[in-house]
Amino acid sequence: MPVQIANPARAADSAVLAGAAVQVGSGDGNGHFTDLVIDGVLRVAASKLVRKEMEKIPDLSFPAIVRSLSILGGRFKAASALQAYPARFFSWTSPAFTLSILLVYTYICFHPALIACLPSMSLLLFVFIPNYIKHFPLDIPEFPVQVNAFGSGVSVSANPDSVEEQAEVVEQAKIKRDRDILLAIRQGQNSLQNLVASVDKLDAFLAGPANFVDIQESCTLFLLVLCAFLGTAAAAGLVSLPVLFSSMGWGAAILAHPEVKRKIEDLKKVEMTLFKNSTALPKLMAALKPQFNVDEEAPIVREVEIFEVQRQGLTDKLWDFCCYTQSIYSVDSPLRLSSQAPEGTRVLDDVEAPKYWLFNEEYPWILDYDAEYWTQDRHIANVTADGPWAYDVGVNGTPGEYRRRRWTRQAFYSP
User: Fold this and answer.
1) What does the pLDDT look like over 318-374, one tens digit per residue?
2) Transmembrane ranges (predicted)?
3) Inter-axis angle of helices 48-55 and 33-45, to 10 degrees?
C-alpha cells in the first residue's frame, strides 16, 4: 500500500511569492489594491502552465464583475421572454403550439441528423420571423377588438378613449406586473426549498446506506442495484432509442396537462397510502440481510512499506543516506533511467499513512531482514541480497552505486 510523504518547502515558491509581493506593492495605480493583491496570490498559487494562460486574459477585478452583472441585469427581460416559450408549451394554453412542438420533436427523434439544423431553425422562428412581422405587420385590424359575452359588438373597455380610462389600464397593468413578479419570486423560493430538501435526502443516502455504515443494509442495496443494472442493460438492446425519446417527450407533455396533473394528485394520495402499507420491500431486505455476515468489530489492518535508499561513498564500505522513499530505485526504475534522484523524506517519522488510514504508536516501523524474499517476489533484476540490504550488482559482482532496505508498519482503516 502506498504511503504519503510530506514534501519539504521549496525556496523557489518563496522567491516567486516575494516577486509577486514586490509587483503588488509597486502598482501603477491602474487597479484597486485588493485586485492587485488577489491577482498576485493567484499568480503565485498557479502552476507555470496556468500562469501562461492567465497572461492571456484580463486581471481579476471586482468592479468589472459588478459592471458585467449590472449589464446582465439590464438584459434580464430577454431571458424572461425566453422562459415564456417553455411555460406556454407545458401549460397547454395553446394546444396547437404544444402539438406542433411535439411533432417537430418526434420527427427529430427519428432523424437525429436534424439536430444540426436546430440553431438555424431557432434563429429563423424565434428571432428573424418575429422581428420581420414587427417591422412589416400582416393585414390585421388597426385596433384590437373584444367580443362581448352577450353580443357581437366591440367592447368599449378594449379601446379606452379618455385619459382616465387609459390611466386605469396602465395602473392595472402595473399591478398585474407586480403580482407576477411576486408570484415568480414565490415560485423560485419554493423551487429552492424543494432543491434543498432533495439535496438533503441525497446527502442522507450517500452518508448512510451508500456509505456502508450498516454493512448488511448497504450490501443488500448494492445487490438490488446491481440486479436493476443488469436488467436494464439487458433490456436496453431491445428498445429503440427514437421510440424511447419520443415517448419520453410526449409523456412529459401529457403529464404537464392541467387535467392530467389533477388526476395524478388524486392518485398520489392513494398510492402513498398503499406504498406505506406495503411490506414487500422490507420483507425482501430482511431476507437478504442475513446473507451478508460481516464482523464489524474486527479492525481492517494493512501493511504499508517504505524503502531506505543509500548511496555508496568514497569506499565500498562507506554509504551515504539518501532518503526514505516509496520507490525501490532499482537499476531499471524510471527515476534512475532519467538520472533523477529518489523523491522522499530524510526522517522516517515524516512518513504519513495513506488516506483514510492511521498509524498506531503501538505498532512502530519494523525492519524487514529478508531482502532476498521481497526482491525475488517482485522480480527485481540486477540486485543481490545480503541480510536486510539489497545491493545493486556492480562490476565483477561488487556492490553497485545504491543499496536499499525495506521498512514495514501496520496501518488501520479509519474512513
Assistant:
1) 899 999 999 899 888 888 888 888 889 999 989 999 888 999 889 999 999 999 999
2) 113-133, 221-245
3) 140
Strand partners, 392: 383
In this prediction the pTM is 0.48
For the range 54-61, what are the long-range contacts, defined as Cβ-Cβ under 8 Å and sequence gap of 24 or more? 59/31, 59/35, 60/35, 61/31, 61/32, 61/35
pLDDT digits (tens, 9 = 90+) for 276-309: 666 666 777 677 767 666 655 677 889 999 999 9
Q: Which of 357, 294, 351 is nearest to 325 (CA)?
A: 351
Express as a percent the part of the chain with pLDDT over 90.
23
Q: Which of 253, 282, 290 is nearest to 87 (CA)?
A: 253
> What is the domain partition of the chain in residue ranges?
11-74, 212-241+256-291, 301-413
Distances in Å between the alpha carbon of 261 and those of 70, 256, 267, 298, 355?
39, 6, 10, 53, 50
For residue 102, give the amino acid letter.
Answer: L
- Higher-confidence position of 15 and 164: 164
- The single residue listed with the C-alpha cell 396533473 is 261
* Type of residue found at 414: S
Rounded Cα–Cα distance for residues 286 and 275 (Å): 17
Is residue 338 classed as helix, strand or coil in its secondary structure? coil
